[in-house]
Amino acid sequence: MRIYYLETANTMIMGSIAELNQIHAQLAEFLKSERRFLRLPAQVSGGTYPSRELLPALEVEKTEGSIYVSLSNERALRIAGGMENLMVYAEFFRFYDDEAGSHHHPECVEHSGYIKPGSLSVIIEPETEYFAGVSR
Prior knowledge:
Number of strands: 8
Number of domains: 1
Strand order of the largest sheet: 4-1-2-8
Distance between the termini: 12 Å
Low-confidence stretches: 130-136
Strand content: 25-35%
């Protein structure tokens, strides 16, 4: 997984379909557990195109209420929220084999109180050959 960050655009989480589905499984396991915090490392080597910075990790924290996506103090992508909302957000990491070339916007949910205003906008996308060649 790579997390591309640019202050003026959407943050992009990219990986192969298998990697994104593995993250989905890890998130599902975490959400069933008693743990309150999960940190998944991300790749930071290689080119940063289409952004200026690769973030070192994805952090997920069980809190209360709406989803809030931000940068942590360690410059990781941090997703915090109540269990029900985190379960919805985590589903956006699941991709089927025929979804190559597609992408998901986890903040685009029609549910009052799902996402806090001011949250970073995120795109989750299977890595295409174009980005795989450019980012390596």
